[in-house]
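User: Predict the complex.
Assistant: Input components as received:
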Amino acid sequence: MSAVRPVPPITIEKPIAKVWTGARAIAEAVKLADVDVISAYPIRPYTGIMNAIAAMIADGEFQAEIIIADSEHSQFEVVKHAAATGARVFVGSSGVGLMYAYEAMLVTGLGSVPVVGVVGTRALDDPGNFGMEWTDAFTTRYFGWLISWPRDVQEALDMVLVAYRVAEDHRVLQPHFVALDGAAITHVAMPVYPPTKKQVTEFLPPYRPPYRIDPIDGPVTKAQHIAPSLIGPEQRKRIDVAMLKAKEVIIEAWKDYARYVGREYPPFIETKWMDDAEIALLSMGAYMKDIELVASKLREKGLKIGTVRLRYLRPFPAEELVKVLSGVKAVGVIEFGFSFGSPYRTGPLYHEVATALYETDERPKLLDFLFLGGREPKPEHFIKAAEMVNDLAKGKTFEKKAYWLTLRGEDI
Amino acid sequence: MSSGPSLIRSVKEIPPIDYYTSGHRTCAGCGAALIYRLVTKAAGPNTILIGPTGCMYVANAHQFLTSPYAVPWYHTQLGAGGAAGIGIAAALRALMVKGKRKPEDINIIVFGGDGGFADIGFSGLSMALTYDYPRLLYLLYDNESYANTGIQASSTTPWGATTTFTPSGKVKRIGNERYKKNMTLLAAAHPKIKYVATATIYPPLDLMNKVIKALNSGGPSFIHVLTPCPKGWFYTPHETYELARLAVETGMWILWEYSEGKFKLNYKPQPRKHVKEYLRRQGRFSHLTDEEIDMIDKMVEEEWKYWLESDKLGKIILPW
């Protein structure tokens, strides 16, 4: 053993890790972003974030108006109007609560108001269920919101800050939420390195919308009723183009985040062992950790497996995914959302992946693994999925496209 | 009352400038359009208007890319009027307190219909009235039906009115069998509410001065404005103002205000006209018998005892 040496001062100046839950870390991001208006309504598992923010405001740690709404619909409408008036805002929800807000979310997206929020994903009623599913967040794919999906608490904090930068960029000006796998991120504590106030100020310019609903900007009329023939398609096209432009803005933002804060991420897709992979497991969010662990063990046994993690669902990184999966024989999609009666009874992430891959000539074969109803998958389920994908790559035919590995009883 | 806001004392003092101008395509004789014009005149240029879905959304543009508003205006969803006003008020306060915007008095007026405030947006409106943002006025233009979608009953449609959802039929002859919800009393039920009032377009100065009082009351406020609607009430368009006057003179619409916990009647019909003078002018009540009209008159007579008593005490007594 080497002798104990004196600690040089440089070590002391290194950032100190805070052990924070996802809820606390997000609250710190909101504070660092100097948010002006927050609107809250309780539903598990996202509520803890608002509890943490409310405590910070009550203690004078930062200044913001916090509105306790009467419903999620009101909650999302409050921040939509506040953002349209020129305030930086924060909002969030979970499960059926989010679904209650859908109309408000929709007009925020179609009205191009850069609200930023989080979704603590949760299984939907009925029956009531505190487990994790993705359908609450996935069903908002059509609403013009950007959607990113972190793997852990650290990335969740970073993603919220980047979300403000991307959403408020004038090339985008669309709302953005960060989907936190319920409980697995919202309630799990880990060491987190928060950026400093100075770093965030350099990275994130103040929010300056082009036209505010404020007499200071003159008589702006927004969202006036139109006859379909007037600007119907053109208004929709603006959002389509904003999503297209968002891809370059996202790349820039993460590059700048690395520059100012010192933490690097691949912008759209994180891969492991994909250089020589013949098969892959693809997913998003917190369970990637388990999936990667399983893949690393299987690699030790000689299986040429890699993992693919999507960091953005909207805009969907289709071209990037095609590149990553080129040469791969079979892919297993691990997902937590449902779309009953869909093609081959598969889930919504499968649909996204299949659509992206359809455009390639040599596309890998796909299997879908649905983890529904909130029952937690274990490593053995991911091992099983990997084995099935391996069989698929070797030419075995499967009767179905989608398998429910956590289901008890017959998977009809 | 020298410390109060300066009110408009005569028609000659009404500001000549309009903030609700040409560019809309409301029906001939639209009561709500008249309200928009009078209310925005009273509020002045430093005002933000919010329009929940309804007649005053769809009819105020649509065919051409025009806007009748000379002040900022933003559409909000049918059920989101309450939240919209709060969102804007919270943003302005936060930005001013944090030094991100210069401090200034800005009025926010949310023009909701009876569907928007009495039905789908009732919860959000109630939430809004529990906050303390000043210069935030919720104005209910009550034409007593979902008129824009083709006259469907709402919870403020009066008893006996025929609408497309409550038609007078061979078996169900009466039409709407529910009684009109009293939104003003519900608004007054919010503790510490600064200002609540009823109004109609008659007399116009009463409406305008109530807007001025509401905006200067120091908190969120609510004005329930009865809004004659030729399309939904079935009368000829030039009678809009006349119907507003008759609603007041027959005692079917009670002009009152509730300011800082003090109730006051603004008009006492002496003598009160029989309700038939108001109801018989409207096609929506044409199926009612004379006995039924008399029954309504008796109900109004009964209620008025309580309104007068409330006025005497300066306190609200439930009139039923």
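Chain B has a mean pLDDT of 96.
Let me know if you want any component modeled separately.
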